[in-house]
Amino acid sequence: MFPEVPAGANRLTIKYKSAYLDIEKKGGSRTKLGLGVKQVNKFIKNVYGKPIDEKTIPIQAQFMLIVIQTIAEATRFKYIENLILADFDSFENRPDPKTIELEKSWQKITIGIKTSTKKGEIKPALDLTYDKDKPWIVSEVSQIAPDMGLLKYEGK
Q1: Where are the beta strands (DSSP E) in 1-156?
Q2: For residue 127, what pLDDT is reported?
Q3: Which of 37, 51, 73, 100 is buried most, with the most CB atoms less than 10 Å from its CB?
Q4: How far is CA 144 from the centre of its chain?
Q5: Residue 81 pLDDT more than 80?
Q6: d(C-alpha 85, C-alpha 115), whole Å
Q7: pLDDT tens-digit profile of 109-151?
Q8: Which residues contact 91 (CB under 8 A, 6 or more apart)?
Q9: Can you give the residue range of the structural domain that contains 125?
């Protein structure tokens, strides 16, 4: 990140890539970490000023997972924002299966909305099923709009 910044005392290199799968390989499943202010505060105290070594990499990766979901994903999705705000001060506010599906599908949702018809039809429909017993097929923008916050820029 920010390769143009010269190396020095204020720049640390993390030992994993920025994709969820890579961060989870180091920090464990994001579904097991709480979201919200208490978790951010707890983990920032565990990483701030600490060296990056094999012992602290899992804690730093967990911190990254919490921050990404609490800030970036809550900005992208109103659903996730509301989930976090409902228990903002809780340590037990874990992402549910719908949260994970939205996070995984951000680009495909954005493209579906961007390429929808003037009447708001999404073709082909988006399969956002996160529970095999409850299929979630989105064929109209109005079906996903209440869950959305920020769309990904996909060009003109």
Answers
A1: 121-127, 137-140
A2: 96
A3: 73
A4: 17
A5: yes
A6: 31
A7: 999 999 999 999 999 999 999 988 889 999 999 999 999 987 7
A8: 34, 38, 39, 42
A9: 105-147
Same domain, 82 and 109: no
Residues with catalytic function: 73
Q: pLDDT tens digit string along 86-103?
A: 887 776 788 899 999 999
CA-to-CA distance for 60 and 116, rounded, in angstroms?
40
Q: Is 25 within a domain?
A: yes
CB contact at 8 A, 141 and 122: yes
Structure tokens at 80: 């996730």
Q: How far apart are CA 144 and CA 110, in angstroms?
A: 10
Residue 30 has pLDDT above 60, yes or no: yes
- Contact (Cβ atoms closer than 8 angstroms) between residue 126 and residue 109: yes
Asked whether residue 1 is domain-assigned, the answer is no
Do 105 and 73 meet the contact criterion of CB atoms below 8 Å apart? Answer: no
Report pLDDT for 17: 86
Tell the residue number behind the tokens 């910044």, with chain if given.
5
